[in-house]
Predict the 3D structure of the following.
Amino acid sequence: MTERLEGESGLTRAVALLRAGELVAIPTETVYGLAADARNGEAVAAIFEAKGRPRFNPLISHLASLEAAAEVGVIEGAALELAQTFWPGPLTLVVPLRAESGLSSLVTAGLGTVALRVPALPLAHALLTAFDGPLAAPSANPSGKISPSTADHVAESLAGRIAAVLDGGPAEVGVESTIVDCSGPTPRLLRPGGLPVEALEAALGAPLNHEAPTNDTPPNAPGQLSSHYAPGKQVVLNVTKPAEDALFLAFGPGYPQASANLSLGGDLREAAANLFAMLHALDTQPGSVIAVAPIPNNGLGLAINDRLTRAAAPR
Ligand code: TXA
Ligand code: MG
């Protein structure tokens, strides 16, 4: 059952659960987040499972300070200016990912960039300081439902599916953080949110690029989706007998000839955790085709197959 946590002892318990790879809903000043250790691929996969999210979109990593965030991503130029002005607070910055970040590639959906945020709520800050590492956290609601601004909202929709809820009172801001992509030549607004655009523009001394988010692109055009990683090689799905020269990405037992196996034991959570790292690794090997074994289309298999179908779509 889902534990209800509060106060000093609740915080200690939340840290212990998160270290053990469990999911804990945590308060922030924007909305409650469904948190997991961002370095633990299976814990991150469990976030998608608990939310029933049919798609792997990249998640925001939460940190205690600018210094801690700078160990995960490269924060310089406009990103540094915005971080120094608005962190801690309802601002998320997308910046280049550090190779040695230790983040699960499921958090970034295999991208070379990472979304970072330092929340202002004192309880969130205390939790992140005690945890001493990055916490991946989307809003703590089932996929397609409204974002939760109280611990009760979280409990109503996710009870039984997550280890605990840390009660930090009602979220003050009530909407998600504003996201600014600082990984390109000029900062770009990806999502309006709790921090007004006017405040950002005043700090930058220039108007923000408002280009429509790339997520509006039709789903079957992965090559056009700049916010989604797609392998460079041709990807073929539902293969049980791969061609001799194909790189074979297997799932489950019975494939001794595989180049890589998403999960020898046929575990979807393990497969999700391995998906992006294995696609990347195979993409760098000699050969022109990645053949992928059938993946069951239930639970996390839906999100895995969604990602693979995009990777296999003609470009
Ligand atoms: O207020 C908030 O931001 C809440 C609280 C819990 O902190 N969190 C939240 O997280 O809304 P999430 O994971 O639902 O937001 C993820 C958003 C998605 O729209 C995703 O596309 C974008 O951030 N995002 C994450 N990483 C990205 C990246 N590397 N490049 C572009 N967009 C990214
Ligand atoms: Mg959400």
About this structure: The chain has two domains: 3-204, 234-312. The two ends are 45 Å apart (CA to CA).
